[in-house]
Every structure is written in structure tokens, then in C-alpha cells.
Batch of 2 targets.
Target 1
Amino acid sequence: MARPLARRLDGSRRIRLDDVDPADTQDIEKDDGVERIEKLGAELSELENLLTYAGTHALLVVLQGRDASGKDGAIRKILEFSNIQQSLNDPELFIRCERRIPRPVTCSALV
């Protein structure tokens, strides 16, 4: 059985980055990887629609990495499969966000 491509973290134990090989591709060729991304992207899009229409939960994705670690590319790839326009047309979205956005003179950090 193949190892999972992502690690599920629930906070019950610490993860040591020394134990993770960043060069491990699990012998997935590029063409196979692109095909998997397309398939998973379609599934992500469907799940995002269900989440949006249910209107009862939210999803926060936190990407942490050093400079040039691929965070921007990951965000762009995720947004390729997202229906962001649907969210931007929702006037309630801006009302909900406005309540949580710090005032311009406030310095905030998410840790």
C-alpha cells in the first residue's frame, strides 16, 4: 500500500521536519502527477461547492514555508479549481470579512 501524499496532523504528537524527505516523489512521474492533480482538482471543486451551498462550515488552509518553497504556486493551482467568482459575488462575504479585518492602524499577526 502506498504512503499518503500528505500528513494528517491532529496536534496529538509533534512532527520533526528532519524525518521528512522533501525530495521524495514516491516514484510518481510528472505526467501521472499532472493527471492526479486534475482529478483531485475536480473533486476539490465539487467539495468547495458543497461547502459553500451548505453555508454551515468554513475551511482555512494554512501554508507555511520558507521563501521560494512553492506557497504561491500552490495557491495558484488551488484557485484554478476554485469557483472564486461565486464567492466574490456574495455581498455577505464582504460584510463578514469587514467585521474581522483589523483597522488600518492596527498591526496584527496570525501565528
Target 2
Amino acid sequence: MLIKCKNCDKEISDKSKRCVHCGFSVEESKDNGQNKTARMLNISAIVYLILGNILNALFGGNNLIITFILIVSYFVVKALAEIVQILHDIRKKIK
């Protein structure tokens, strides 16, 4: 089965450890993707925990307001992450 190299975007075998075109390490790329996801989940959990505590202190435990702000902030962060990914893809295609 063929996959695309994340560095040069050319097709390589899914069994390859390195891209035959640019030498990019496919194995490191797979690990980095999993590690990035785990880090993002950890960071998100910490940010929402801190934000929740700050909002709780500001609004005196009004859970409806806190919940609304956390939900809105989640969608804003998600949209920003998608925009960053799109910009990254565009930058890759320009190379």
C-alpha cells in the first residue's frame, strides 16, 4: 500500500522506514503524530481546568456562564487548530 510522505508529499510504501525521495523518517513522523495528539490533549485538559477555576472565581460559581464560556472557547480553539493545519498544508504545497 502506498502512503504520502509528510515531508515531500510523494508516494512511498507504507512499509518504508524512510522516504526514498527525500530521506524523511516515516517512523518518527508516526510517533510524532501520536505524541503531538497526546500533548495537545494534555495541554487542553490543563488549560480548561485552569480556565474553569478562573471563571469560577470570577463568576462566583455560576455554572451556566462558566459552561457557556468553556464551550465557546473549545470551538474557537478547534477552529484555530484547523486554520493552522490548512496554513501548514498550503505551506507544504508551495515548497
